[in-house]
Amino acid sequence: MGDRLLLAVESSCDESAVALVRGGEVVLVERVASQTAKHAPFGGVIPEVAAREHHAWVPRLLDEVMHEAQRIGVAGDIAGVAVTTGPGLVGSLLVGAGVASGWAWGRSLPLLPVNHLEGHLRAAWLRSDPHALAPTLPAIGLVVSGGHTLLVRIAADGAIERLGGTIDDAAGEAFDKIARLLGLPYPGGAALSALAATLPRGTAVAPLPIADVDGPYDFSFSGVKTAAIRRALAASGQSDRTPGRAATLTRHFAEHPLPKGAAAEIGAATEQAIVGALRAAVARALRAHPECSLIVGGGVAANVPLRTAMAEVASAERRTLVVPPATWCTDNAAMIGAAGEWLLRDRRGEFQDPSLGLDVHAQWRIGSAVPA
Ligand code: KG4
Ligand code: ZN
């Protein structure tokens, strides 16, 4: 059972991905096709374009993965197909679920619906190096991506309890929106972080305010965005201007770009505010759950200051920390294969008959059964 081989398919947002994962840990083959370049001119993901791209790419990647599986002699070992069925863009999810269902039916293989956010958490179990530290349960899990920011507790039996999350923008969304104002291409999180890193070491950065929220594990990032906009307007000599609509602002800053130093300072202040809020909530969660280790996943977990902050918190609280390598932080199918394996092991999920098809869900709260 430890070496069950799952074929995994991911298509919830703007990455098409297919992988073969053994025992929820070892990635035998994986392919990812990112649509970022298609959406970049619009400054965000266009759902119709995303679905069309998945339609072109998911079958192609599936062929490539199976070709490789045959070459390395594991094609006959596949025990089932794990596929993301939510949360995400409905059109995109439908393509992945449809291709996976048809493919599984054609090979008499069972299907397993997987929650994308559980995938981001279970990415921590994927091993590129057999000597790497394996996560332990119970754990506090932080998922920080372009669409989601949430904090959970995973019990020793795999049950997931949601502790809190963002009440407005996701952390990655806040990075991306502010990056766009600073003239950086979409998605701007990594570029904003790189810009912030150009500030000479030790440069004092005036902090941006972070909104208070009621829950100890909740976040609000839309206030950081507004404060960053006001600071950017002030830096371009427009302190009195009301921010107005995003498109108007983006045009204003495209016509009057900020000097690089001012943009870097705003980027650094943004990054510090977001990382600071995540750090404070994770520290609170670890203190309240002294039995828990720490795992972090999602695209924003590729952020170096966030990784450093998490390492510091874990060390201060004497906990083990596992953050996947950056390629398994951003959307991929290997993490869906890992999550699928754990769903089967802890019996929160079970294989389904592919002839029944799969429902997909734009919203799907982590840890809950698939919504009706
Ligand atoms: O998990 P992901 O690939 O897609 C979603 O499920 O949303 O996350 C993408 C997000 C984007 O907002 C992107 O800007 C952000 O992750 N991101 C980063 C970094 N690398 C990716 N944000 C900050 N710093 C980075 N280095
Ligand atoms: Zn994601």
Task: Name a few traits of the molecule.
372 residues; alpha/beta; 5-stranded mixed beta sheet; 10 strands; binds 5'-O-[(R)-(carboxyoxy)(hydroxy)phosphoryl]adenosine
Concise summary:
With 372 residues, the protein is of the alpha/beta class. 41% of the residues lie in helices and 17% in strands.
How would you characterize this protein structure?
With 372 residues, the chain is α/β, with parallel strands linked by helices. The chain has 12 helices and 10 strands. It is globular. The mean pLDDT is 93. Residues 13, 145-147, 172, 175-176, 187-190, 193, 298-300, 302-303, 330-331 line the site of 5'-O-[(R)-(carboxyoxy)(hydroxy)phosphoryl]adenosine.
Helix content: 40-55%
Quaternary arrangement of the chains shown?
Answer: single chain
Structural class: alpha/beta
In order across it, which strands form the biggest sheet? 3-2-1-4-5
Q: What general form does the structure show?
A: globular
DSSP strand tally: 10
Radius of gyration, Cα only, in angstroms? 21 Å
Q: Which parts are unreliable, with pLDDT below 50 for 5 consecutive residues or more?
A: none
Please report which band the strand proportion falls in: under 5%, 5-15%, 15-25%, 25-35%, 35-45% or over 45%.
Answer: 15-25%
- SSE series: EEEHHEHEHEEEHHHHHEHEHH
N- and C-termini, Cα separation: 30 Å
Bound molecules: 5'-O-[(R)-(carboxyoxy)(hydroxy)phosphoryl]adenosine, zinc ion
Number of helices: 12
Give a short account of the largest sheet: 5 strands, mixed
